[in-house]
Amino acid sequence: MKRSPASIRPGGILRWSTVCILAGTGLTGCDRGYVATPKDEQVAATQKRLDELDAVKAKLMAGELPNNFHLEGVGYYHAAARDFFPERYGATGTQGWFVNGKWEAYPGPEAVADSRPTPEALKKVEAALEKEQQLLASQPAGSTGSSQGQGHGFGMGNALMMYWLLSGNRGFFSPGAGFRQASSQAPGWQGSVESQRSAVNAHAAAHPGYRRLVEQSRASGTSVRAGQSVRGGFGNSRGSGRPSIGG
Q1: pLDDT 10s digits, 196-212
Q2: Distance between CA 115 and CA 117 in Å, rounded?
């Protein structure tokens, strides 16, 4: 029988922790039995928001938004109306379907092209950005603004999205004090976002099983939750009757 070049035992050359790190992202015996911790759940939520932020940056800086894009503190964007409203485009209720700011008897078109917000809509964004800056200024150092403890928005990320959208539309509205102040704050917000990205990368490098959990989460479209196992299912501490992120 072929022997391993390094003994894997408490007193051997390599310990399991070292083997797991060297294994990288492959599905080894180390990460196959990995069970998500509360820290994994927290880090995965941050990583998901960072991925979403990266995905929309170019579009926002070009000054356009897709239908139903949501900005915390502003609302849902209805691309055909080029404005924000408190209800999603296509939301249903006793009054019918909410389409372009009004309740209609029939649903609106499913496919709606991206558009540039009106000057009035951009003023709503700037007002929300000004409030977000006030909130961020009131937070303790190291916090992330409106997302702290509430699950709302993304703090600096939410402010950056509003700033990028306004920057992409500078020739279409008259910027006010909120935007001018944000211009000096934006590098700091970006730095905070990059700091969160570095923390996510460090956690992933130290926990190969976490990376496998994230892969399964993306494939299944569900969030990473504490107690989930890479093999599909939950650890014994949470019971076996819960759904698996691996499908």
Answers
A1: 999 999 999 999 899 99
A2: 6
SS3 35: strand
| Per-residue model confidence as pLDDT tens digits over 111-151 | 999 999 999 999 999 999 999 888 878 876 555 444 433 33
Question: Stretch 28-39: mean pLDDT, rounded?
Answer: 75
What tokens were used for 191?
């730095």
The predicted model scores a pTM of 0.73
- Residue spans of beta strands (DSSP E) within 3-161: 70-71, 75-78, 83-85, 91-93, 96-99, 102-104
C-alpha distances in Å from residue 153, one per residue of 50, 60, 129, 172, 203: 12, 16, 12, 26, 23
Contact 38, 226 (CB under 8 A): yes
